[in-house]
């Protein structure tokens, strides 16, 4: 029995070092504070949300198991200082927290792209948490975990994807109720199929809204090509 128990414990210990990944690749960061920097993207598999504008639905299922040591080795091989852990929803895998900590320990500039539907309190404070607050137009507004907002710091970022004028006004209301611009960077992005970039820019300028307008650089360069 002791041998069986020891084997089971060893197997369980090994499992704690693995994550399911869709892809790891080198590209340019296309948005948020580090836009333009060569960045290694570590895309974890799986997401509990289904936003109507999602452009990475291929990461919902499938993927391959990677040892965290192997992830670190591949990140090092790709050779960029910036690393972005994304998904899917990376925090849906509990071992993501361990990966983030180890990336920080290795000296990388680390960001995490998260939906805002899961608790961010366990994320290493060295990580820049890019929190995507879901607007009504996303179809997932009910999933926002509002208790995350008081946890945000100057190292973090908040993103709103705007699908309509109604979304824009809703996001303004969120900023009125929760002055996030006093805590961290706030980014507004157009959902390209629904709101024109110039239209959103004009709204922000007209309202003198204290947010950063952004477009997704990677889409301008490579459209939605996976691995770019």
UniProtKB/TrEMBL annotation:
> Which sites bind Mg(2+)?
56
The record, for CDD domains, names:
Radical_SAM
Q: Give the record's pathway.
A: Purine metabolism; 7-cyano-7-deazaguanine biosynthesis
Q: Which SUPFAM superfamilies match?
A: Radical SAM enzymes (SSF102114)
Gene3D superfamilies, alphabetically? Aldolase class I (3.20.20.70)
- Ranges for domain Radical SAM core come to 34-228
For the ligand ([4Fe-4S] cluster), the binding residues are: 47, 51, 54
In terms of NCBIfam families, this protein maps to: rSAM_QueE_gams
Q: How does it assemble?
A: Homodimer.
Question: Would you identify the family this protein belongs to, as annotated?
Answer: Belongs to the radical SAM superfamily. 7-carboxy-7-deazaguanine synthase family.
What name does the UniProt record give this protein?
7-carboxy-7-deazaguanine synthase
Gene that encodes it: queE
